[in-house]
Prior knowledge:
Blueprint: E1 19-21, E2 31-35, H1 37-43, H2 50-58, E3 69-71, E4 75-77, E5 80-82, E6 90-97, E7 103-109, E8 124-125, H3 126-142, E9 148-160, E10 164-174, H4 180-188, H5 192-206, H6 212-234, E11 236-237, E12 259-260, H7 284-300, H8 306-318, H9 320-335, H10 345-359, H11 363-372, H12 382-396, H13 402-409, H14 417-428, H15 433-441
Antiparallel strand pairs: 1-3, 2-9, 4-5, 6-7, 7-10, 8-10, 9-10, 11-12
Magnesium ion (MG) is lined by residues 244-245, 254.
Amino acid sequence: MALHxxxxxxxxxxxxxFYSRQRPAPVAAPQLIAFNQTLADLLQVQAGDLVxxxxxFAGNQVPEGADPLAQAYAGHQFGTFNPQLGDGRxxxxxxxxxxxxxxxxxxxxxxxxxxxxxxxxxxxxxxxxLREYVVSEAMFALGVPTTRALxxxxxxxxxxxxxxxxxxxxxxxxxxxxxxxxxxxFAARGQTAALRQLTEYAISRHYPQAEGPMGLLRAVRDxxxxxxxxxxxxxxxxxxxxxxxSSISGExxxxxxxxxxxxxxxxxxxxxxxRMGRYAxxxxxxxxxxxxxxxxxxxxxQLDDPQQAVExxxxxxHTMPALIETEWLxxxxxKIGLETAQDADMDLISDLLELMEQGxxxxxxxxxxxxxxxxxxxxxxxxxxxxxxARWMQRRExxxxxxxxxxxxxxxxxxxxxxxxxxxASAVAGDFTLFERLGTVLQQPFTEQQGAEDLQxxxxxxxxxxxxxxxx
Length: 472
Ligand code: AMP
Ligand code: MG
């Protein structure tokens, strides 16, 4: 059977100002590492033989119907505006329609240099490719909006980072690759017509009910609210929340130095390049608001009556923190088994988190243990936990089935950093067993699985990963 991808491309029709046509640069010896059959079925992609799939997902062979291009975008990186970023090593092959009626981008990440590469080599190495594959699929299974991974190939070439590393290419699937930075690109150039065109495109692709630029802003805000609250609820730290990594569709995008927390710490940072802690765990909500303000600033520039729009945009942005808090509270209520809402719930949850932070309790395991009445094991100072537990027990009496809610909201398995690092090290040595195993177990993160106890365990002192490197 031949590989078949039923392309149906729309972004390419926006015109040449939006991208540069660019074919992937062939690699020496492509080999298929992984192919996501379940996702392929959703995308109506028909698998071919291993050689053909390796050729296509490495970029050596451009499949029929693809229209390969590198997208233009700008972005604030750690708060500093760069008017010209763009896909420096990613190439959009085109779009397909899923069986769910949704449109998806297919993009090769690590497919060679483009006009936007600047000093970069246009490549990716095996480590970040496998991390993104496993973590993005795990996020999907956790119910967090995210881009996904369709395939990974090794290139047979060496990529130079801290040293020589094996090269790889990831096939990323996204609702689209429109970013806050895509809007900033045209706004910064004063290209009002293109900005209007992009706005219409984003509305029709993602939020057909939205009316005009301010309607789009509101819709993006609501999607980002759900996203950020979901990250917080699973202890996820994105690591590089630059506006070029902030998706209009509200998906998690660009898994660089991302990580899940082990023990709970509000100021937790993993990224080696985030020296000021700008993108620390508890800063993520305010950074999302900041990013939305940048989108507002860009969108406003296409309006005839900017003054009125400024007021509306300000209102949309200013309501975001309260909306995040409401959604955060809804999700954290569920984490302690509550479906109904009471005024004192916020204190109950905050007090628990404070206990966790003081006791350096494992975030994931502590919440999971609450469902089984084992929570007390996870706190060093159990005396402080007892009064909290008494309050919680009383509050729970007003709930129908707290156990079931907790089991569905508190995962058993997350992609723990030390396992991801272990997986990368063994894959570099040619062993993909842990990569496969993590993929399988993390497909059902809320279900205890026999023989997977090691993946539930927090790191021992010598296993703790203190920094994740952007060395992408
Ligand atoms: P990121 O930090 O991955 O979001 O990337 C920021 C910018 O750097 C984007 O424009 C990327 O396309 C570009 N970039 C990252 N890595 C490379 C690379 N190896 N070669 C060329 N461009 C890159
Ligand atoms: Mg990026």
